[in-house]
Amino acid sequence: MLITSILIIRPRNFSKAKVNKIEHIGIAVANLQDAISVYEKLLNTSCYKTEAVESEGVQTAFFQVGESKIELLQGTTEESPITKFISKKGQGIHHIAFDVTDIHFEIERLKSEGFVVLNEVPKMGADNKLVAFLHPSSSNGVLVELCQEKS
């Protein structure tokens, strides 16, 4: 019996696609002040910024770690995605964010690759970033955030 297999390679347009780095890891916390204290000890550095994102019902705190950041997120309302996440899964890693060169291009590229984009129009997020999210069902159970510095 002869067994053969065929590998089909689908050409992709890598020329314009640009994911620059892991921008940050988002961690859902129940108490932002307590978590800031923990991460200041853990990372041996100070929180450099806190910011409210009213549209998402969250308060954030940032730590610089090399070229990337840690973003702590506390829900400020019962309807906040972070509050809901913590009530379902507890505190912990909420998302990973990738810095992209052209968020609009990346949204279209990822949609064409079969990813489920939660917000097809980028919205204003924390730290002066335009953001869009990919549904975890299309990225192996991980909530992915795309972010681009707002110019």
Give a short synopsis of this structure.
With 151 residues, the chain is α+β, with helices and mostly antiparallel strands. It has 3 helices and 8 strands, in the order βαβββαβαβββ.
Question: Could you walk me through the main structural features you see in this protein, from its secondary elements to its overall organization?
Answer:
By secondary structure, the chain is of the alpha+beta class. It is 21% helix and 36% strand. It has helices at residues 32-43, 81-89, 103-112, and strands at residues 19-28, 49-53, 58-65, 68-75, 92-100, 123-124, 129-134, 144-149. An 8-stranded mixed beta sheet has the order 2-3-4-1-5-8-7-6. The model has no long low-confidence stretch (mean pLDDT 92).
Defining traits:
151 residues, alpha+beta, 3 helices, 8 strands
Number of strands: 8
Label the structural class: alpha+beta
Through-space gap between termini: 62 Å
**Spans of at least 5 consecutive residues with low confidence:** none
In what range is the share of β-strand residues? 35-45%
